[in-house]
């Protein structure tokens, strides 16, 4: 099946979309504040006329490329494109300041390739197993899974649990707007006809991730001057000793990142910090500690860990219909726009799409390595575009994309309102990921809650029957305990 998938991925059109997706993903990753989730949100309304396989191959290239590109600005300018690249700034920027920018960029590119490629191999063998496992899921299991995603995402990705939960509640509230499909009751539409069909997820994602960022940048453009770049020097490759030094960190980071592609804790943010912390603990035991001086392992591990989540995240999306990050949530919305439902039946109903997409992951990793290893420093020149022109262009594309999907001026006003709301969320540090997860998985949770209660005659005990829901709830409890303990320890360190 994988070989057949490669036959679809190697068609000239799909190869072109692999390259386009990788270029776009790397470009938005390089630009601070612009992530793969925003790029996919902008592309979503523009790809409805494409073949689904080509569209999702491009989305996957954007997803992978975004993580590849994030590290470039983190290393060169100490400006991470997304939260997943923050851990790379600690040692990567020190390497750049010491005149080792090319070696740092090479370390990041090779680490991203190793983590992503191993992740792709794992997901090819794991996704069908996950799909078979998912056939045992009923209303109780899916409701437990959605609840796990809600609580885990809200409690992990935000500094404040209350802010994460508040963002989740807003997303759930947006998901319920419109006419109830079962009872026909009007919900939260306030007799506005344009809201009877609900709020489009495309409008929400574009407003939340793109227009909100534009307004935020515009509000601080005179306060935040662009930082000076670090000039490259030295050889643009790793020596044998440097490669030998980085290899264990790449492998350890990959091992840490792989499980987080399936666990809904906000994507690549958490494993990068865990991988960095693990390498720092190991470094302290060495005779000559390197951390704080530009340690290559401190850059290699987070890069591999962050990119190792990508393949398994796509596997969780395809096999379980479970989005574990904002980008995956938007891709889930794209599946629904094409009339497809990710899950075990997708492997039977659309095998060409699934296996062509899985095969394209390998091609995307190779294309990204070829793009980033020799030309990584050239991406920094994108920042030469004056920021007023750059972000004004993004705002125009936001409006064009939303209007193209509905031809409704009401949606444009809705986009503006959501963009301003997203600016306020950014201003007061409310995370957007729980809102998107709530809006995407809210209908799934509601439908399975209703189905379970209807089948049991209103008995809520049905959601605690079976081994799978109990295991999911136990994992949820463990995740909450770990999160609470970690926060208590971090506060104790601050007090000390």
Q: Which key phrases capture this entry?
A:
membrane, Putative tricarboxylic transport membrane protein, mainly alpha, DUF112_TM, single chain, 496 residues, transmembrane, transmembrane helix, 72% helix, two-stranded antiparallel sheet
Draw up the topology in text.
Elements: H1 2-9, H2 12-30, H3 36-43, H4 52-77, H5 86-97, H6 101-134, H7 139-156, H8 161-175, E1 178-179, E2 186-187, H9 201-220, H10 240-260, H11 269-284, H12 296-320, H13 326-337, H14 346-349, H15 351-375, H16 387-406, H17 409-427, H18 433-456, H19 467-495
Helix pairs in contact: 1-15, 2-4, 2-15, 3-4, 3-9, 3-13, 4-5, 4-6, 4-12, 4-13, 4-15, 5-6, 5-12, 6-10, 6-12, 6-15, 7-8, 7-18, 7-19, 8-18, 9-16, 9-17, 10-11, 10-12, 11-12, 13-18, 16-17
In short, what is this structure?
The chain crosses the membrane at residues 12-34, 54-76, 104-127, 139-158, 165-183, 195-215, 316-335, 355-379, 391-424, 460-485. The N and C termini lie far apart (57 Å). The mean pLDDT is 80.
Total beta-strand segments: 2
Largest sheet: 2 strands, antiparallel
Number of domains: 1
Counted by DSSP, the helix tally is 19
Average the pLDDT over all residues and give the rounded result.
80
Radius of gyration, whole Å:
22 Å
Order of helices and strands: HHHHHHHHEEHHHHHHHHHHH
Structural class estimated from helices and strands: mainly alpha
SS strand fraction = under 5%
Task: Give the termini distance in whole angstroms.
Answer: 57 Å
Spans of 5+ residues with little confidence (pLDDT < 50)? none
Domain DUF112: 15-436
Organism: Naumannella halotolerans
Transmembrane segments: 12-34, 54-76, 104-127, 139-158, 165-183, 195-215, 316-335, 355-379, 391-424, 460-485
Keywords: Membrane, Transmembrane, Transmembrane helix
């Amino acid at each position: 099946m994988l070989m057949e998938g490669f036959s679809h991925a190697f068609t000239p059109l799909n190869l072109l979309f692999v390259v386009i997706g990788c270029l776009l993903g790397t470009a938005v990753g390089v630009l601070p504040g612009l992530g793969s989730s925003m790029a996919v949100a902008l592309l979503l309304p523009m790809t409805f006329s494409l073949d689904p396989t080509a569209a999702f191959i491009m989305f996957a290239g954007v997803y992978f490329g975004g993580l590849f590109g994030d590290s470039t600005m983190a290393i060169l300018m100490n400006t991470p494109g997304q939260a997943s690249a923050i851990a790379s700034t600690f040692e990567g920027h020190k390497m750049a300041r010491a005149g080792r920018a090319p070696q740092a960029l090479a370390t990041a590119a090779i680490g991203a390739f190793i983590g992503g490629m191993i992740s792709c191999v794992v997901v090819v063998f794991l996704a069908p197993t996950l799909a078979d496992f998912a056939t045992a899921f009923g209303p109780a299991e899916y409701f437990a899974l959605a609840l796990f995603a809600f609580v885990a995402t809200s409690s992990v990705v935000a500094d404040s649990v209350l802010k994460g939960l508040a963002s989740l509640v807003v997303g759930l509230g947006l998901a319920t707007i419109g006419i109830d499909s079962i009872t026909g009751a009007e919900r939260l539409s306030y007799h506005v006809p344009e809201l009877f069909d609900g709020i489009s997820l495309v409008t929400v994602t574009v407003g939340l991730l793109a227009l909100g960022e534009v307004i935020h940048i515009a509000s601080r453009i005179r306060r935040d001057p662009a930082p000076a770049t670090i000039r490259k020097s030295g050889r643009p490759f790793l020596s044998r000793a440097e490669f030998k030094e980085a290899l264990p960190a790449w492998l350890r980071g990959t091992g840490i990142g792989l499980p987080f592609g399936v666990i809904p804790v906000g994507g690549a943010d958490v494993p990068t910090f865990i991988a960095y912390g693990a390498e720092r603990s190991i470094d302290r035991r060495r005779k000559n500690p390197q951390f704080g001086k530009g340690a290559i392992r401190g850059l290699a591990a987070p890069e591999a860990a962050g990119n190792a989540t990508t393949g398994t995240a796509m596997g969780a999306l395809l096999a379980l219909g479970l989005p574990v990050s904002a980008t995956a949530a938007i891709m889930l919305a794209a599946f629904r726009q094409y009339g497809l439902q990710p899950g075990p039946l997708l492997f039977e109903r659309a095998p060409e799409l699934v296996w062509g997409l899985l095969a394209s992951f390998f091609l995307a990793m190779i294309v990204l390595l070829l793009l980033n290893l020799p030309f990584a420093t050239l991406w920094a020149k994108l920042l030469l575009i004056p920021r007023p022109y750059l972000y004004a262009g993004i705002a125009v594309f936001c409006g064009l994309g939303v209007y193209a999907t509905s031809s409704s001026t009401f949606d444009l006003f809705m986009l503006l309102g959501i963009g301003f709301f997203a600016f306020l969320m950014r201003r007061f540090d409310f995370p957007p990921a729980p809102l998107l997860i709530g809006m995407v998985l809210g209908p799934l949770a509601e439908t399975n809650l209703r189905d379970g209660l209807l089948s049991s005659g209103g008995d809520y005990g049905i959601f605690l029957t079976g081994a799978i829901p109990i295991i999911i709830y136990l994992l949820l409890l463990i995740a909450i305990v770990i999160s609470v303990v970690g926060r208590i320890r971090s506060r104790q360190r601050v007090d000390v």
